[in-house]
Design a protein that fits this description.
It is elongated, with a radius of gyration of 23 Å. The chain has 16 helices and 17 strands. The protein is of the alpha/beta class and about 525 residues long. The strands form three sheets. An eight-stranded parallel barrel has the order 10-11-12-13-14-15-16-17, surrounded by six helices. A seven-stranded mixed β-sheet has the order 1-9-6-7-5-3-4. A two-stranded antiparallel ribbon has the order 2-8. The protein folds into two domains: about 45-160, Chitobiase/beta-hexosaminidase domain 2-like (Chitobiase, domain 2, 2-Layer Sandwich), CATH 3.30.379.10; about 175-485, Glycosidases (TIM Barrel, Alpha-Beta Barrel), CATH 3.20.20. The structure holds ligand TNX. Ligand TNX binds near residues 380 and 407.
Length: about 525
């Protein structure tokens, strides 16, 4: 593996900034933004170009019961730039009405924009939230400003019906190779939820560090989260249980489910530094700050291994309301095959015993216990046809490394990122079909897609944003939009139009040469 160590921040700051698009503007009743200018693409849209809705200082947002919180989030998003009061009320005229009604698929919604009012309807609040993300993109980019702007706040007229292709649309953030502070994680949750990403997988432990407090094994974080625990000896830190619970709540408010991962039986050097009894010979290894993988392993034939696994899984399950608990399983190159199978035979049922659905990297599919415990397999390979994934008969989350790995470099010239899975430009991230990637996994077993971001080369939020955007949006569209909507030219043009929003949000992003940026 090779890293470019040039500061991503410096690069992003050196980029030219956008100037506000103030030009002549569209004729009255029409808008600069089309009803279909949405990322990810909506399933169905019927524009009615002369039926635009204009927000005024009197506009109200109506909602009741379980819809109220989502209405509040829309109002909060639009107040700063419009300077309007946008009260959330039970009834009102010429309103933006959020309505709960039966009949929509999970996370699906319908949106009707007319001159006299807007109606957004879904069966559950998650669908309203998805619809709100669409609505937010239908006002001009100035809406992202943090103080009041003069603009015509006009939504394009017409109707949208929208729903996800896959239930699981994820982003992963590695806190182990470099610890990211809760504020940075919250910012990432804000960014990803704008694109209808609904799972955040946190990689909480690895050879270099341990980032979640476990009360029954306190040295994990006391030692594994100490200053200097990270690649290059930079960083350190961990989440307290309160930090973690608060992040889970923050994510849930944005309809994002947290999927915690403890990586076992490999990638455990940090745990073994803290507790030498977790090695086979009982000798503490040295702390590691390099990027190598595959050298550490829990001891499959010591009982203490399973006490450790049970305690960690129990404490993690207790503070995780979401259905999934990820137990890693990747790159266990120093765990003999038989030991790996014995380990999974005992650990996967432990996840079930604590009421969670086990998730593992695709290596766990070698174990019959994966299928027996209906584990979700996360495919991270490059090749088509992974027989071991097919054999398990389980549901699969697709993270093909040469398409979805956000820590890979964009190209040879752009600094930052690794290159073992190749360079991944925006079109590489976009041009594949999750339904056809693994020809021996039937389409109905694909639970969804996830874009992992490993932190070996990351330091701060700017680094995260620069590698994630715009590629994460490509993965979001593959996960949400129907296959029939897949169209590189359309995607790239919508992406170009989104650039000014990221500029106003202060998000650093890669100005890919494949895209014409507004
Ligand atoms: C492989 S992908 C890993 C990680 C590294 C990553 C770097 C996977 C399941 N394991 O340990 O961080 O490559 O790209």
């Amino acid at each position: 593996m090779r890293t470019a160590r040039i500061g991503l921040t410096a690069l992003a700051l050196a980029l030219p900034t956008f100037t506000a698009t103030a030009a002549a503007g569209p004729p009255p009743g029409r808008t600069a933004i089309a009803l279909t200018d949405v990322l990810p693409a909506v399933a169905e849209a019927v524009p009615a170009p002369d039926a635009a809705f204009r927000l005024t200082p009197d506009t109200v947002i109506t909602a009741s019961g379980a819809a109220t919180a989502v209405a509040g989030s829309l109002a909060a998003a639009w107040r700063p730039a419009t300077g309007f009061a946008l009260p959330v009320t039970e009834t009102g005229d010429r309103a933006i009405a959020l309505v709960l009604e039966p009949g929509h698929p999970a996370e699906g919604y319908r949106l009707a924009i007319r001159a006299g009012g807007v109606e957004l309807a879904a069966t559950r609040p998650a669908g309203l939230f998805a619809g709100v993300q669409t609505l937010r993109q239908l006002l001009p980019a100035e809406i992202e400003a943090r103080s009041a702007r003069h603009a015509r706040w006009v939504l394009p007229g017409g109707r949208i019906k929208d729903f996800p292709r896959y239930a699981y649309r994820g982003a992963m953030l590695d806190l182990a190779r470099h610890f990211h502070e809760p504020a940075e994680i919250r910012a990432y949750i804000d960014r990803i939820s704008r694109f209808k990403i609904n799972h955040l997988h946190l990689h909480l432990s690895d050879d270099q560090g341990w980032r979640i407090r476990i009360d029954s094994w306190p040295r994990l974080t006391a030692v594994g989260g100490a200053p200097g625990t990270g690649v290059g000896g930079a960083g350190g830190g961990f989440l307290t249980k309160d930090d973690y619970r608060e992040l889970v709540r923050y994510a849930a408010d944005r309809f994002v489910t947290v999927v915690p991962e403890i990586d076992m039986p490999g990638h455990v050097n940090a745990a073994q530094v803290a507790y030498p009894e977790l090695t086979c010979d009982g000798v503490a290894p040295r702390p590691r700050t390099d990027m190598r993988v595959g050298y550490s392993s829990l001891c499959a034939d010591r009982e203490v291994t399973y006490r450790f696994a049970a305690d960690v899984i129990r404490e993690l399950a207790e503070m995780t309301p979401g259905p999934y608990l990820h137990v890693g399983g990747d790159e266990a190159m120093s765990t003999p095959h038989g030991a790996y199978l014995r380990f999974q035979r005992r650990v996967l049922p432990l996840v079930r015993a604590h009421g969670k659905i086990p998730v593992g990297w695709h290596e766990i599919a070698q174990s019959p216990a994966a299928a027996e415990n209906d584990a979700v397999i996360q495919f991270w390979g490059r090749e088509r046809n992974s027989p071991s994934v097919a054999a398990a008969g389980s549901r699969v989350v697709l993270s093909p490394a040469n398409r979805t790995y956000l820590d890979m470099e964009y190209d040879l010239l752009t600094p930052g990122g690794l290159d073992w899975a190749g360079a991944i430009e925006v079109r590489d991230a976009y041009d594949w079909d999750p339904g056809a990637l693994l020809s021996d996994v039937p389409a109905e077993r694909v639970l969804g897609v996830e874009a992992p971001l490993w932190s070996e080369t990351l330091r701060d939020l700017d680094d995260i944003e620069f590698l994630a955007f715009p590629r994460l949006v490509a993965i979001a569209e593959l996960g949400w939009s129907p296959r029939s909507a897949h169209d590189w030219d359309s995607f790239r043009s919508r992406l170009g139009g989104y650039g000014p929003r990221w500029v106003r949000q202060g998000v650093r992003f890669h100005r890919s040469p494949e895209v014409r940026w507004s």
